[in-house]
Structure formats: C-alpha cells, structure tokens
C-alpha cells in the first residue's frame, strides 16, 4: 500500500479535505469519503455515464479518474444544482416529461445535460442525442430523456429572453 | 475495480518528468487524460508502480496553426480539437475524426498525445497522423527528436519511443485538397471495425496526390502507398477506387475478434475506404 495523499476538492461550492490513496477512483472518494451519493457506480468502465460529474468545467466520468488527478479541482454533482424545494430546470423537466423510469442513470444524465445546454443552448434533437451519447439508459429508450432536455432548453431560453 | 497501488507524481517541469523516467525505467509511465491507461490499470493489464501525471506541465495544450504548419501539444484534448475554429479551417479532417472517437465525456479528457503515444491499434489518431505525414516530437534525456508517424509504430503498444522519452507534440504541414475520416463501429465508444483517413488533391480533374491510412486492421496503423499510387493520375472513377481498395487489402492484416472474422473485416475495410475516397474526392 502506498502512502495516503492529502486531497483537497471543492465540491458543490464547499471545500473538502481528506486522506486517500492516489489509486482511489474519484467516484468512490465522492461516495464513500464525502457521502455524496448522487453520482452512481454503473458500469465502472467509462461506458455508461452514471458517474458523470462536472469537473473544472468538463463533463467527466468519475469512475475513470484517480482522486489524485482530481486533487485541487472544482466539482459539481447532482446535489449541487438543485434542492427538493427548488429543482433545477432540467430536474423539473425530467419529472414533467417522464425522462426517467428506475432513475439510476438520471444523475449522470442531468449533469451531462447541464453542460450540453451550457455549450449549446439551442440544440436540435440530433445534437442532444449526439451530446448525450456517453450516457446509457436501460429503461426509457431515450425518447423522453431527449424530450426533457429539449423542453428544458426552451424553458431556459424563454427565461433568458424574458430577462432581457 | 481497484488498480494496483502506485506512487503518484504531478511535476511542474518536463525536466522532472524525464528525471523520474530515468530513475524508474519501465516501472514509470506518464499519463495525459488517462482514458486508455486508467481502464488498463483498473483491469490490472497495466501495472504502473510510478504514475506521472502531465496535467501541470505548461505548454503541452497549445494548438498552433501558422505558416502552413500545424503543431498540436500532446495534452490537447479531442474536445479542444473539435472546438478550435482555426484548426478546423486548416485541417478539417481532425475534427471529423475526433467527433468519431468515444463519447463527449471521454473527449473532454482524452488527448491527441495519449492517443498517438499509446500504440493501441484501435486508436484513431495514429492512422490519421500517418495520413497527414505528421512528425511525432519526443523529448528525453538527450534532448528532442522527431520521428515520422509512418515510422513510429512497431507492433501493438510498441512504438519507437524509448522508456525515458515523452511525446510532447505532433506537427504536420497544413493539408490541402479533399478529406474524409470514415469509421465503422458497432456502437458509440467502440473501436473501429475498420476506419480510413483519406486526403486527396485534385488538379485538372485528376488525382494529383493522395494519402490513405487505415485503422484497426493490423497490429499497427497502415499507410498504404499502393492505394495512394492506384489513385494518382486517375479521375477517381470506379475502376481507380477498386484498384485502390485492392491495393489496401494487400497491405492490411486484420485478426479475428468480437468485431468479426477476418473475411468480414476485409470486406468492411474495402467498403469504408471506398466511401472515404468518394467523400474526399467530392470535397477535393
């Protein structure tokens, strides 16, 4: 066993410090060291996207990053974008449009979708499907996930216009 | 999935990287985005007692497009390649290929240097760099040296790079003419069953120059001089394309795996190359 490292992360706006072996995967550090269990362990092989978080402005699969690599990073998980009383537009939209069934993939889907809409606020259906290609859902057949994201995009854009 | 334990280093200077590599020999590996190395370490197919993370080394993420020359730093990600307007204008084949690699999350992390250095026959950038006749720039204890991408690959995961060298950048002349990167894959995130990188220069209705490289059809990428020669001087008609595909099939040596038997891969290689040539010629 190698020596543990002193890891510092900013997760959902809060500074976190803990000790971890460098080989620990970020997903396990989040879930087991910090009790942030929104990001899920799906395939653990960087295929399914259930562990997707935003790290320094990028959508990343936290099962394919060592915690040592993430040291010093700013991370946002599903816990950081809304609360049960004040859902994020995408969370509300997934509920409204039935964008989930079992819900296991949903935290990863929504985190990826936040970044997708940030980079492309007016995506076509095809662009949504291409931009979400790193996230797998085994229940919905994707139709309602795509619908939820497109509806959230319209809502965000309408809000932006109204604000102007 | 827990990889074997390792010592982790994140040096700020390339000299320190080289010193670590000299000290630990093949017990040390450098890591760029980690999206090839980490999965291998998780499966314990790669054991890396000393892991050197390159993320804090300055200047490895630069993209330079000037004076007819393009240089890509090793840490430039696929996401960077896709979103760099100047690069897309100068060498659009890079964006077309990068968009066919893995998925968005992987493209944020996966780097061009890692893809080229790794030597996995399934990686797309090695074939593409052979098509572009790129130079691979390495730095080691004795300074820097460049190797042609067409000479770089020796066998699967075996390249011309020495254990104490680091791939720092890739450079090539701005390509001209039509281009296409065509890839057949079973699903998003899979490696190619067959992929082709093609650049064609057209002059007076004839092919003036052509460059053709194939991916995942041998244990190394295959630049097919025979396929290029079959096109040059022709009007890129059906007969010329058939001759190019036949020449290419003479240069590849696919092996059977879960993507299909050898006969199927050879069939797909022919189809993919014909499509790539057709598209490159249309754009030439």
What does this structure look like?
The complex is a heterodimer of chains A (164) and B (284). By secondary structure, chain A is an alpha+beta fold. Chain A has 2 domains: 5-80, Ubiquitin-like (UB roll), CATH 3.10.20; 89-163, DNA polymerase, domain 1, CATH 1.10.150. Chain A has helices spanning 26-33, 67-70, 89-96, 106-119, 125-131, 143-163; strands at 5-11, 14-20, 52-55, 58-61, 74-76. Chain A has a 5-stranded mixed beta sheet, sandwiched between helices. Chain B is an alpha+beta fold and 284 residues long. Chain B has 3 domains: 7-53, Uridine Diphospho-n-acetylenolpyruvylglucosamine Reductase, domain 2; 63-173, Uridine Diphospho-n-acetylenolpyruvylglucosamine Reductase, domain 3, CATH 3.30.465; 178-283, CO dehydrogenase flavoprotein, C-terminal domain (Enolase-like, domain 1), CATH 3.30.390.50. Chain B is 36% helix and 27% strand. Chain B has helices at 14-24, 37-42, 78-83, 85-90, 92-98, 104-109, 112-118, 125-131, 149-152, 225-231, 238-251, 262-283; strands at 7-9, 28-31, 50-53, 63-66, 69-73, 135-140, 143-148, 153-155, 158-159, 166-173, 178-185, 192-203, 206-215, 222-223. Chain A: One of its GO terms (molecular function) is oxidoreductase activity. Chain A: InterPro entries: 2Fe-2S-bd, 2Fe-2S-bd_dom_sf, 2Fe-2S_ferredoxin-like_sf, 2Fe-2S_ferredoxin-type, Beta-grasp_dom_sf, Diverse_Oxidoreductases. Chain A: Its EC number is 1.2.99.2. Chain A: It holds the Pfam family Fer2_2. Chain A: Residues 5-81 form the 2Fe-2S ferredoxin-type domain.
Quick one: CATH class of the largest domain in chain B? Alpha Beta
What class do helices, strands and sheet pairing of chain A give?
alpha+beta
The largest beta-sheet of chain A arranges its strands as: 2-1-5-3-4
Helix content of chain A: 25-40%
CATH class of the largest domain in chain A: Alpha Beta
